[in-house]
Amino acid sequence: MYPFSFGTYPLDNFCCQLSHDQNKTITSLDLSSASASENAEAAELQRMIAVEQQKAQFQAQVHTFTDVCWDKCIDKPSSKLDSRTETCLVNCVERFIDTTLTITNRFTNMVQKGGMH
Predict the structure, then answer these.
(1) Is this model's pTM higher than 0.90 or not?
(2) 4 lies in a domain?
(3) Which residues contact 105 (CB under 8 A, 6 or more apart)?
């Protein structure tokens, strides 16, 4: 699908970490007066929305990788990638993932420790 691989990074975990707070954007449905089947339908709808939000977040990240790494690594368009360009793209994406995960983890730690108000 893409001209480079993501190496051995756990992308499912990465995607979930990036979209961890996405569920908070979903308005909670008032389930107190709903029937059991309505509750199940509402819960399934919320789950489906959360999945779609995670997919959208992941696609946005891939788009960002493409923008950043294309500008950094592609000197001139050609019909195929040479080894130097491919290595540059792989390294660029891996550093981008590393940086994003580090920032996400530090922010999460700050919030858990009460460092953000």
Answers:
(1) no
(2) no
(3) 17
